[in-house]
Amino acid sequence: MSKKYKRCATDQYGTEVFFHEALMGDQVSELRVRTPEEATMFFVPIYGECFLWQYEMLRREPRVRSYELTNDFYMEALAIVRGQYPFWNRTLGRDHIFVFPGARGPTIFSDWQIHIKNSVYLTPEGDRKAFYYDTWKDIVIPGLEADERFTHPASRQQLVDNPPERKFLAYFRGTIFHREGNAYSRGLRPRLHGLFVNQTDIIYNTKKKECDRQCYRQEMAESVFCLNPLGWTPWTLRFYQAVMTRCIPVLIADDIEFPFESGIDYSEFALKIREKDVDNIVELMRSMPEEERERRRRVMDRIWQIFTYQRPPVGGDAFYATMHELARKHRMFKSSSIHEWR
């Protein structure tokens, strides 16, 4: 499916393809075992987001029908997992891993609560209020940025060695006014528009056709702060792109959980502003001394690669950070009620 639809492997939801391909690669053979009896966890490769996209967006099937087909797709895959392999029933699927790369999480599989509620989800959507996200068992991962202009170490180092002039105080391009009104972003994005309307050194606008990805990256690199207001959900790829371009991320999403929080102190490089306090955002950004801005960039220089998916995976990138998180979760699972020690 990913060969037929290249988008499924290269857009921000491409992690369901990436993890499968990476785990099958020779470079990470140390993570695989020869027999399932040796395994501590099982990866289930299902391209559900890609499958749903081809019906919902490409073929323009009605939403209900697209979800029905996607549900059937998952059920067929689970029939294979449960019918041909005896390992699911040992833990009721608790040691099985699924990637749900979009903001809708496992809800793209309508019957997920019946069949895979105990399983581990790799998802970019760390929304603490979402009923389908469980911080105890699930793992927040970065979205996929496949453009090497953002992710290649040499491209990143150029921004360190020859930093561009920072022409803009803050930067955002994306949806601001939505047809659903204030239901979208809880009205935050239109509110920010009102705050920035007279600020000549802030780019806060919708995407424009003449600004391609190279232009987008350049504008980010020329900005001191990159704004990340919530949309329908808290997560956004902009956060990771900001770190990749040495632009200090400004998070405005109260309920967000970040990737790899057990090992990263986000307060060392990012700003997080409560939604109710956003009226002070311009003053907060302008008042930060240049020394502090540069210190935060240096922190990002040390950790930026953990938000990238290198091809092939390398130590310290998002793939290996996720593997470390899985190992940590597995140790926690040993203390759960379904295990016994002898």
Short note summarizing the structure:
This protein is an alpha/beta fold and about 350 residues long. It has helices spanning about 5-10, 15-25, 50-60, 65-85, 90, 110-115, 150, 155-160, 190-195, 215-220, 240-245, 280-285, 290-305, 320-335, and strands at about 40-45, 95-100, 120-125, 140, 170-175, 200-205, 225-230, 250, 270. It contains 14 helices and nine strands.
List the defining traits of the structure above.
342 residues; alpha/beta; Rossmann fold; 5-stranded parallel β-sheet; 4-stranded parallel β-sheet; 14 helices; 11% strand; Glycerol kinase; transferase; Exostosin
Helix/strand class = alpha/beta
N-to-C SSE string, H for helix and E for strand = HHEHHHEHEEHHEHEHEHEEHHH
Helical amount? 25-40%
- Tell me the number of helical segments per DSSP (H or I, 4 or more residues long): 14
Mean pLDDT: 94
According to CATH, what is the class of the largest domain?
Answer: Alpha Beta
The CATH superfamily of the largest domain is identified as: Glycogen Phosphorylase B
Quaternary structure type: single chain
Which percent band covers the strand fraction?
A: 5-15%
Subcellular location: Golgi apparatus membrane
Pfam families: Exostosin_GT47 (PF03016)
Family: Belongs to the glycosyltransferase 47 family.
Protein name: Glycerol kinase
Protein described:
The protein has 14 helices and nine strands. The chain has helices spanning 7-10, 15-24, 48-58, 63-84, 88-91, 112-115, 148-151, 153-161, 188-196, 213-221, 238-244, 281-287, 290-303, 318-333; strands spanning 42-43, 96-99, 120-123, 139-140, 168-173, 202-205, 223-229, 248-252, 271-272. Helices cover 38% and strands 11% of the residues. It is globular and about 60 Å long. The mean pLDDT is 94. β5 (168-173), α9 (188-196) and β6 (202-205) form a beta-alpha-beta unit. It has 342 residues and is α/β, with parallel strands linked by helices. The protein has two domains: 7-144 and 313-333, no CATH class; 148-307, Rossmann fold (3-Layer(aba) Sandwich). α3 (48-58) runs antiparallel to α4. The strands form two sheets. The chain has a five-stranded parallel β-sheet with strand order 6-5-7-8-9, sandwiched between helices.
